[in-house]
Amino acid sequence: MKREVQIIGLSYSQSQPNAYVVVLSEVNGHRKLPIVIKAQDAQTIALRIEKLKLPRPITHDIFKVFCEGYRVDVPEVFIYNVVEGIFYSKLVTNNGVDDLDIETTVGDALALALTFESTLYVDEEVLSKCGIQTDEAGVVVEKKSKKKEKKSPVVSIDDLKRMMEEAIKNEEYEVAAELRDKITKLEEEK
Question: What phi and psi, each to the nearest 5 degrees, are found at residue 15?
Answer without folding.
Answer: -95, -20
